[in-house]
Amino acid sequence: MRHLIDLESISKEDIIKILDTAKSFKEIFTRDVKKVPALRGKTVVNLFFEASTRTRNSFELAAKRLSADVLNFNVSSSSVSKGESLIDTAKTIEAMASDFIVIRHPSSGAAKMLSRHVKSAVINAGDGTHAHPTQALLDIFTMREKKLKIKNLHVAIVGDILHSRVARSNLWGLLKLGAKVTLVGPPTLVPRHFSKLGVEISYNMDKTIQEVDVVNMLRIQKERQDKNYFPSIMEYARSFGMNEKRMKIAKKDLLIMHPGPMNRDIEISSSIADGPNSVINEQVTNGVAVRMAVLYLLSGGDGKFEDPA
Amino acid sequence: MKILLKNGRVLDPSQGIDKKVDILIENGTINKLAESINDDKIKETIDCTNLLITPGLIDINTHLREPGHEDHESIESGTMAAAKGGYTSILPMPDTEPVIDDITHVKYISATAQRDALIKVHPVGAISKGLEGKQLTEMGNMIEGGAVAFSSDKKAIMNADLMHRAMQYSKMFNTTLILYANDENLAGHGQVNASLLATTMGLSGAPKEAEEIMVVRDVILARLTRAKVHFAHLSSPYSIQYILDGKKKFPDILSCDITPYHLTLSDEEIRGYNTMAKIMPPLRKAEHVKKMVQHFKDGHIDCISSNHEPGSDYSKSLEFSEASFGTIGLETAFPACYTYLVKTGKIPLDKIIRAMTSRPAEIIGLKAGSIKKGEPADISCFNLDKETLYDTEAIVSKSKNSIYLNKKLFGFAEHTICEGIPVLKDGIIVKKST
């Protein structure tokens, strides 16, 4: 593995290696000194063409806990369309002797394109509606930690699947590890093509919520209403939101996840988000561990991470 | 001036000729066709042994980018590319800057072609002012200026009332409307074929239904008005079905074409975010391409058009969503069809040649497309046995955005003769002497 572009193109074994490595890194977080020298002298560039605080912070912290130098390079996407191409920007960054480029970009395929033009290892932190592999890895890491296995686990991904890179990456990762996946949402937002990959498609949240072990609630964007993907936020929330009523008919140990940022009381009720079944904050913690694992493995680490102290 | 084409295999589907014949050209017209012509006074003899001689190809759908984007292509460079592809007549679309929507612009094209073009350029006017789909253009005036047909080009006319009027009005001149069938609302911002592949790649899809809906609408309007309607570069087998249905009752008013790449390549080409495969209408699924080949073989598709769309290297080096649409196609139209369709036994050679010569001539009403005594000497000679690597060095067009880039193809033109003048000789462009 030289780059991490998406989960579709990496093997099941690589996914498991990342999850196992992340587990070792997570143990460091309980110490007083939460830092290891694994990437000392290496440079990680966060190249963000889209505003994102949490993903960028997570990568920054992951790199710093591995003792790497971090450069945050923010480009507003408006200035991109006006002149400098992605490739030009990438060459500029490489001239600063980067070892890793973490890229977020509004255009699907941007990370792949970048990987063809640079020597640095490229980590996709979200490209258009294509992929967001580290988010999916941290979601799967969290499921694995709580449910102990992924095989035969029934996971529902709920919401705007059509525009979600998180959903796509979760889908590939979960399928590779043998989970059963159900995509839930209105037909306008759940591409029927996905059924060909062996996933279930459901338009009935009440039915699906009774069957699943994990539910991953995606953020619904109000702008989708303007394009008539659904007639109103209220109807969407009533049809697909995770609320107390649905909690009552769900399995007692249902794991509730959300990649953030949440629209409270729209796709998820406040009481549910803050309730005992929610692991939303743990996802954030796990995100750092997973990103440390990805950086470490791409730098040539063998996956058998041992205490360097 | 006399030119003799000797020992070639002449294939002219318009007359059902396929045999070894010598051709004598005199003063720009075809003077004689005979088994063996020998004449000491002939200054120039072109040895056509092992070459395929056809009527000069005719392209019903080209983009030359002049005026406005001469950095991508010009009338001169575009006709050079056409000559390289064995074309002697082309119809450039009106989507230039400014749009070809009045007589002065038509005359500009004609005058520039007179000066710069290696082959015949027949201007196509816009159906609506600025291709905006709001107001009809002065078709009568433009015809007087030399326009041979009218088109909506890449901007479908979404307003059915305007389309209806355009068809009614065009009947006054018995001219052909070349339509791009695309429901812009349904196609949305679609960049590739709507499919599982597009969905997993996170690319928005333009469903083939966006094409079919407009084909159905315009077949209905053509039946109502009896206007001559030609559907450009179709991609869906269902579109062909609907046209076929319309043709049953009105065989003389409806026609359509397809590009070589929609006959030979599927949407698999977009894998890895290959921007060269970003084309409108999109490349479709392999099973649909197969059906299009069958439709072509069955004679349901009239013509093959190049849909030559020059674009800069830069515009194709951008992120997929930002990259430009289209591929150049004049130089590879026949070689691609020959290599992937004829050589593989999918389609007989004469059907390909007819769709690139006499059929487009009939639809537009051009005096071209067959090798007959007294006709203009528009002739092409192809080498079917030689395999050529089509790399950037080989490209004549100013733009290098070819979907067939770095492919090895058979059947490139050796000689192209337009009105008796060799414009391509031994595979090399003969520049216009000024």
Write the layout of secondary structure elements.
The complex is a heterodimer of chains A (309) and B (434).
Chain A (H helix, E strand, L loop, with lengths): L11 H17 L14 E6 L5 H12 L3 E6 L2 H5 L4 H9 L5 E6 L4 H8 L3 E7 L5 H15 L6 E5 L6 H12 L3 E5 L15 E3 L2 H7 L2 E4 L5 H4 L6 H8 L3 H6 L5 E3 L12 H4 L6 H19 L11
Parallel strand pairs in A: 1-2, 1-3, 3-4, 5-6, 5-8, 6-7, 8-9
Helix pairs in contact in A: 1-6, 1-13, 2-13, 4-5, 6-7, 6-13
Chain B lengths: L1 E11 L4 E10 L2 E6 L9 E4 L4 E4 L1 E6 L12 H10 L2 E6 L10 H14 L3 E2 L2 E3 L12 H7 L3 E3 L8 H11 L5 E4 L4 H4 L4 E2 L2 H6 L3 E2 L2 H17 L2 E4 L5 H13 L4 E5 L1 H5 L21 H12 L5 E2 L8 H5 L15 H10 L6 H8 L1 H7 L14 E4 L4 E4 L16 E4 L2 E6 L2 E5 L2 E2 L5
Parallel strand pairs in B: 1-4, 1-5, 6-7, 7-8, 9-10, 10-11, 11-14, 12-13, 14-15, 15-16
Antiparallel strand pairs in B: 1-2, 2-3, 5-17, 17-20, 18-19, 20-21, 21-22
Mean pLDDT across the residues of chain B is 96
* Computed Rg of chain B: 21 Å
What is the typical, i.e. mean, pLDDT of chain A? Answer: 93
What's the alpha carbon Rg of chain A, rounded to whole Å? 19 Å
Explain what you see.
The complex is a heterodimer of chains A (309) and B (434). Chain A is α/β, with parallel strands linked by helices and 309 residues long. The longest helix of chain A is centred in the last third of the chain and has 19 residues, at 280-298. Chain A has 13 helices and nine strands. In chain A, helix 6 (133-147) packs across helix 13. Chain A has two domains: 12-131 and 284-298, Aspartate/ornithine carbamoyltransferase (Rossmann fold), CATH 3.40.50; 133-282, Rossmann fold. Chain A has helices at 12-28, 54-65, 77-81, 86-94, 110-117, 133-147, 165-176, 205-211, 223-226, 233-240, 244-249, 270-273, 280-298; strands at 43-48, 69-74, 100-105, 121-127, 154-158, 180-184, 200-202, 214-217, 255-257. Chain A is 41% helix and 15% strand. Mean pLDDT of chain A is 93; it is low at 303-309. A five-stranded parallel β-sheet of chain A has the order 7-6-5-8-9, sandwiched between helices. Chain A has a four-stranded parallel β-sheet with strand order 2-1-3-4, sandwiched between helices. With 434 residues, chain B is an alpha/beta fold. Chain B contains 14 helices and 22 strands. Chain B has helices spanning 75-84, 103-116, 139-145, 160-170, 184-187, 196-201, 209-225, 237-249, 260-264, 286-297, 313-317, 333-342, 349-356, 358-364; strands at residues 2-12, 17-26, 29-34, 44-47, 52-55, 57-62, 87-92, 120-121, 124-126, 149-151, 176-179, 192-193, 205-206, 228-231, 254-258, 303-304, 379-382, 387-390, 407-410, 413-418, 421-425, 428-429. In chain B, strands 1, 2, 3, 4, 5, 17, 20, 21 and 22 form a nine-stranded mixed β-sheet that branches. A six-stranded parallel β-sheet of chain B has the order 9-10-11-14-15-16, with helices on both faces. In chain B, helix 4 (160-170) packs across helix 7 (209-225), helix 7 (209-225) packs parallel to helix 8 (237-249) and helix 12 packs antiparallel against helix 13. The model of chain B has no long low-confidence stretch (mean pLDDT 96).
